[in-house]
Design goal:
253 residues, alpha/beta, 8-stranded mixed sheet, two-stranded antiparallel ribbon, 29% helix, globular
Length: 253
């Protein structure tokens, strides 16, 4: 059987795009998604956690990848920096307000594409998959990095960053079933390691599951609240890496 390229595999039918967590890795996610949009290989549905939930949720809501890139490149620390004493440095009100102003829809049910985002329930010590109800607070909760942002109250429970226990952002992906034992899944894996995650953690490894094709780009610049200027470089390098990946061989898990 002839080897397929990733471009050919993506063009064979609907697929889910899964986007991992990774602090301010949303710049790289947006770069990858912009190439998929340019090549008319956009996903039918999305899932992710933290940085992945932000980009996946914005795209699913109906924003174009190019618009998401523009918004992220225009981001300044003052847009989300609102220190307040609590279980985290930042209150998160500015982040929520920016999301609500940017999202064209208010609820998951009104999105242009289905999307599922992961959050962490610290009291239950469990991952929660959000796929219905209000969209902005769900994205905010999934992106609320512990100790940086206050927890988010949603549907009667406090929630934090989905990457705490679902670093891959795959909890909301379609599971294998008798009807479809290997759901088609393109996974973008952010390779950088957060300072609080130990080296060698299984969450840092690229996952393996039936139907999954992973893209893991090495050496991307690491952005942060005090290094936002590195976001443009990370976005551009991720886009270049994704263009190269499209013409490389692929062998789904």
């Amino acid at each position: 059987m002839a080897t397929r390229t990733l471009r050919e595999w993506l063009g064979e039918g609907d697929y889910t795009l899964a986007l991992s967590s990774g602090f301010f890795g949303f710049f790289a996610h947006a770069g990858v998604l912009s190439v998929l949009e340019q090549e008319r290989l956009v996903p039918a549905r999305l899932c992710g956690s933290s940085a992945g939930a932000l980009v996946g949720g914005l795209f699913a809501s109906g924003l174009s990848a190019s618009r998401i890139c523009d918004e992220l490149l225009a981001l300044r620390r003052a847009d989300f920096w609102d220190p307040r004493p609590g279980l985290g440095l930042l209150r998160g009100a500015r982040f929520r307000a920016r999301l609500e102003a940017l999202l064209p829809v208010g609820r998951f049910e009104d999105c242009a594409r289905p999307v599922a985002v992961s959050a962490w329930d610290p009291l239950a010590r469990a991952t929660v998959v959000l796929r219905s109800g209000l969209l902005a607070p769900a994205i905010q909760a999934s992106s609320s990095v512990p100790f940086l942002f206050h927890p988010v109250r949603l549907d009667g429970r406090w929630l934090l960053d989905g990457g705490v226990a679902d670093r891959w952002g795959l909890a909301g992906a379609p599971p294998p079933s008798a009807i479809d034992p290997a759901p088609r899944l393109l996974y973008h894996h952010l390779t950088s390691r957060s300072p609080w995650r130990r080296a060698g953690s299984p969450a840092l490894a690229v996952p393996d599951r039936p139907g999954l094709v992973a893209v893991a780009l090495q050496g991307l610049p690491r952005a942060g609240p005090f290094r936002l200027e590195r976001g443009a470089e990370a976005m551009a390098q991720a886009a270049e890496g994704m263009r190269s990946a499209l013409d490389g061989p692929v062998q789904p898990g």
